[in-house]
Amino acid sequence: METLAGRKIFAGKASGQALVSSQPVSFYGGVDPDSGIVVEKGHPLEGKSVAGKILVFPSGKGSTVGSYTLYRMKKNGVAPAAIINKECEAIVAVGAIISEIPCIDRIDIEKIADGTNVTVDAAKGEVSF
Amino acid sequence: MKLTKEEQEMLDGKHGRAVKKSMEILTALGDIFGAERLISVASVQIAGVSYHNLGEAGLDFLAEMAKDGKTRVLTTLNPAGMDMENWRALGIDPEFARQQERVIEAFKRMDVITTCTCTPYFVGNLPRFGDHIAWSESSAVCFANSVLGARTNREGGPSALASALTGRTPEYGLHLDANRQAKIAVDVKAELNGADDFGALGYAVGKKAGSKIPLIRGVNAASVDELKSLCASIATYGGTAMFHMEGVTPDKATPADETIEVTAEDIANAKRELNDETDIDFVSIGCPHASLTEIRRIAELLRGKRVTKETWIHTARPVKRTADAMGYTKAIEDAGAKFACDTCMAVAPLKGRFHGLATNSAKACYYGRGSNSFKVKLKPLEECIRIATEE
Is A99 a catalytic residue? Predict the structure, then answer.
């Protein structure tokens, strides 16, 4: 088993299947808050659902309203189980905190293959698979 | 990040749940951006007010924070999705209105002053030179940093609320001298007059300099209304949260490494970009919210005339009340134009109601095209009113 160490953004534990994007994610306008499906045209995850997944992507982008979109997804039961970033920025960080989604960053995300079962222990800043 | 004893207690939950959640947000942001400590803020401006953008979940979040959260510093609000008093006459759906009222009620419970304007500096939220503040709303952030010389990063709605409930913000970015220096000098070689010209300047500088802080030279005079328009435009098209303008803005500007020019041709090109081929069925003034000077001028231009297009003026309610007292409102409304206070066309649900917008605001052109799918025309104020009244 491999363990990667990064930094805690919001504490919590979660296990699940990794959904990996090589491109940044915009939650406001980029993900449908009712279904959890990525709707951004041309995005590598377009058409895929992030619900219950360990969502792995380099960083957030787009409007700061995206923090509220994550919160809507959580309330609708379609939020990711955890978020792993290469470099977390304010939109995703604030979204994870207000939605209480475990979140870590400073992880070498290229090492995580799409579809792998991973476990995140955000308080320790660790992901293992 | 180093916290004081009181701040640690706030984070540990000894000051209640809303303060704890707020401190989690602020310390996480501080860690991400490498802040060494939290600093006190003099005032806060919160965006994320329109129910159109917040949705039910955003409202839930605010209601949750309002259970035990109270502002510790002067805090004002960005525009809402409708005129809070006159929404019926402006054709807003009653169900939307009910939800929007719940949003405002949640803010009021936290003792946020529910001004609903993007020009907080016109209604009593006026920081001093050098004050640290936590503001959202890109045009107001740019105005505070550039024109007033106060210091703020561009906050999102939740982080601004977190600062309101704690009186703190992490010390990074534009709070620090080193990050407020100009990165690019812009020599303006064009005559500029009015909000539309300064909006076109913001477009031209924004497209050329991107998010680099510019030092704008060669603009010898600029009114508050012209600067307000420039702030909105440069933040929209460039993404920068501040600029220096030689002889106009108060921060000390050191010479930049790189120099570019904005010529009369660049301004003309910007205007071409912001003028679509279209007929006009909607005239909107007040992005950012109209000042008393602008409202007085509109009243003067409309006196004794009659509008033939739907014409809306967006402003802060306290400004409108003064216009009421002066008779400006009567002159404007007698001509058939309408006030839509507390809101603006960037955040109100107007898509499908109109197709061609005339405005003196370059920022309004962006949101008119994007959020509302309008065709747009950027024109001087006088020309907008002429279009509004032509047969």
Answer: no
